[in-house]
Specification:
Layout lengths: L3 H21 L7 H38 L30 H29 L5 H32 L7 H38 L2 H39 L7 H10 L2 H9 L17 H41 L19 H6 L2 H36 L9 H12 L2 H25 L1 E2 L3 E2 L8 H25 L4 H4 L7 H6 L6 H10 L4 H9 L2 H8 L10 H62 L5 H21 L14 H7 L1
Antiparallel strand pairs: 1-2
Helix pairs in contact: 1-2, 2-3, 2-13, 2-14, 3-4, 3-14, 5-11, 5-13, 5-14, 5-18, 6-9, 6-20, 7-9, 12-13, 13-14, 20-21
Length: 669
């Protein structure tokens, strides 16, 4: 099994990253380089999280083997035996041979750092650029990132000059490398604690509120009102941008040098706008004959950028609106079915997507009623309690992990108890659950936060390229300090445990933080304690209240603005529900009309065709008889009457356009 666990996790994590990227990105419309760069960033970060427990178990086995093989005289040397024992060390099933993990961590770490500090910022500017050529986009990206890269080079150059001038410093290349790693991890740890403090409280609370149907329905109404405002704003913005595109398209004719740029802009517009602008275009016209003021290429680049942004925003709001409607309709169905005596779940509307037959066979209406109305609320409550327990353990360990005598960090206690018996499966499971919960708290916050329309991860393939690349940058900057924080909580980091033991392969590539003692002994130890303050602020929704005071509508139960938006959203959902009901009723009546009169019309048509054939043959045999033309005309009249019956459609009596007053209907007719 040597190396088999490593290979299995490498493949599994790749498909996990691919699945998440497919949920948020759009493989068909977005650039391949954007998809590959984002997939690589997500994959490397997830890989670090999943492989680190294997590194811990391998390190514990190496310590055990070293303790057994070393003599008492050698135990005072470079390594100290943790649990001297004469029993044989059992090799874990996921043991990774020596020499593989250091190379693996070095490749993964430096690749992720290259992505987050160099490649992804450049690709962000490239993807957001409105240039019409690759050269133009690269030029724009270099100009936008000149200040970004120049700032880091200036700081690094000033530091090198200071080290060269000061005779007290005698730093080597490895120490400079460690300082660079420490600087990157310090920046990541600063952001990590902020996101972790929010996730530790919000994740258990969201699952607890998920058991409250009334709460979810009110929040859905609130989201509907906000999304309708954003949707109307996106439509208005798109109309304004399309009007500018129309003016530019009419001013720049086919033989103008900038016409290729205009055609590129038109390809990015929605189809209905392209057809509308194509009908208004004149024939070839010489642009030199009319002294018009033509837009410059720079203004077209700016317009191209605006078109890409407005079209993507409009499409995203349309998709989100349809998804939110389905959620609201489903929550209303759950509220209605809770008092059902038949204990069978009844949907107001049928699903628009075809259901899987296997799922439909097992997930019957009775099973769905028991799950949605009885079991699911209790399941969410139990899950919320478990997650809250994990959050309390994390907060306690973050505040006490620096204490080694006695050991107060609960995660360190669990690992040390399992280390005494060398129960590697328990060690790996404990490490995996710990770091998985920490990563869920941090990564879920990255997926939830939204910075206006600048950064927003929207599911159902509605995330733009800029937000995907930005999320990859955040993951690559947050994952290394997250893993170091996990190793500190479990006392697997020698900087925290203050023991001269064999380090893990992950900490070995980070170097000794003793080069910067004020960071190793100060910031890394005491800064994570701020998570307590952030958890308290999140529990009392201080951030939400501040945003609400600044004018950003947030869901708050005791706010008058929230109540108004809930009422507005409820009316919007009711209006959309009536609209969809009228559409389904009209389709049902059309279907019933075809089923009722379709067979009769087909039989009448066949009988009429048979009569025509018989009459035509009779006409050919006796052309002098005048009765044939009447028969033929009667057949034509019969066919016309049948076609009129087929073209007729039933009236929608629930529609608003139908008037109940017969006098007014006669006058209208």
């Amino acid at each position: 099994m040597s190396g088999a666990a490593l290979g299995l996790e490498i493949v599994s994590v790749f498909f996990l990253a691919l699945f998440l990227l497919h949920r948020y990105g759009d493989f068909k419309k977005q650039h391949r380089l954007v998809i590959i760069a984002t997939l690589l960033a997500w994959y490397l970060c997830f890989l670090i999280v999943f492989i680190l427990p294997l590194d811990v178990s391998t390190t514990i086995y190496n310590r055990c083997k070293l303790a057994v093989n070393s003599s008492p005289a050698e135990s005072n040397g470079s390594y100290v035996t943790l649990a001297p024992s004469k029993q044989k060390c059992f090799k874990p099933w996921s043991y990774i041979p020596n020499g593989i993990m250091p190379i693996f961590w070095r490749v993964v770490y430096w690749t992720s750092q290259f992505l987050t500090w160099i490649l992804l910022p450049f690709m962000q500017s490239y993807a957001r650029s409105g240039g019409f050529s690759i050269t133009g986009k690269i030029k724009t990206a270099l100009i936008e990132n000149a200040i970004y890269y120049g700032t880091y080079l200036l700081i690094f150059g000033a530091f090198l000059i200071y080290v060269a001038v000061n005779p007290n410093f005698n730093l080597q290349w490895n120490q400079l490398q460690t300082i660079g790693i420490a600087a990157a991890n310090t920046w990541g740890l600063f952001l990590l604690v902020l996101l972790l403090g929010y996730g530790l409280v919000e994740i258990p609370r969201s699952h607890w509120n998920g058991a409250k149907r009334g709460y979810l329905l009110m929040k859905t109404y609130f989201k509907a009102a906000k999304l309708m405002t954003e949707k109307a704003d996106a439509e208005e913005n798109l109309e304004d941008i399309m009007e500018e595109v129309r003016k530019v398209s009419e001013s720049i004719k086919y033989n103008h040098p900038l016409r290729k740029c205009v055609d590129t802009i038109l390809k990015k517009c929605p189809t209905e706008y392209q057809e509308r602008m194509g009908r208004n275009m004149d024939d070839y016209e010489d642009f030199d004959e009319r002294q018009n003021s033509y837009p410059s290429e720079k203004s077209l680049v700016k317009l191209h950028k605006q078109v890409i942004y407005s079209v993507q925003r409009h499409r995203r709001t349309q998709v989100q609106w349809q998804i939110l409607l389905e959620q609201a309709f489903y929550l209303e169905d759950v509220a209605k079915n809770e008092t059902s005596a038949t204990r069978q779940f009844v949907h107001t509307f049928h699903s628009q997507e075809p259901e899987n037959k296997i799922i439909q066979y097992f997930y019957t209406p009775t099973v769905e009623w028991y799950w949605e109305c009885l079991l699911r609320p209790w399941f969410y409550r139990v899950l919320a309690v478990v997650l809250a327990t994990f959050s309390v353990i994390v907060v306690w360990s973050e505040c006490t992990f620096f204490s080694t005598k006695p050991v107060l960090s609960l995660f360190a206690v669990f690992i040390q108890l399992a280390e005494k018996t060398y129960n590697y499966i328990y060690i790996e499971m404990a490490c995996f659950l710990t770091i998985f919960f920490l990563s869920i708290c941090v990564y879920s916050t990255v997926f939830r936060i939204r910075v206006f329309n600048y950064y927003y991860l929207a599911s159902h393939h509605q995330t733009d390229a800029y937000s995907l690349l930005f999320s990859g940058m955040l993951f690559c900057r947050l994952t290394p300090p997250l893993c170091l924080n996990f190793l500190g909580l479990t006392h697997m980091d020698a900087t925290i445990s203050h023991k001269n033991t064999q380090p893990t392969a992950y900490t070995s590539i980070m170097g000794s933080m003793r080069v910067l003692s004020f960071i190793a002994d100060g910031f890394y130890i005491y800064y994570p304690m701020l998570v307590v303050i952030l958890c308290i602020a999140t529990y009392f929704s201080l951030g939400t209240r501040c945003l609400n005071l600044l004018g950003f509508q947030q869901f708050m139960g005791d706010s008058e603005m929230t109540s108004d938006l809930i009422d507005e959203g409820k009316e919007l959902i009711r209006r959309e529900k009536r609209k969809r009901q009228r559409q389904e009723e009209g389709e049902n009546r059309r279907r019933e009309w075809k089923e009722r009169y379709g067979n009769r019309d087909d039989s009448t048509r066949n009988r009429a065709v048979h009569t025509d054939q018989k009459e035509s043959s009779f006409t050919e045999s006796s052309a002098n008889r005048p009765l044939s033309k009447y028969t033929r005309s009667n057949g034509r009249t019969e066919r016309d009457r049948i076609e009129l019956l087929q073209d007729a459609e039933p009236l929608d009596f629930n529609a608003d356009s139908v008037n109940d007053d017969p006098l007014e209907s006669d006058s209208g007719r």
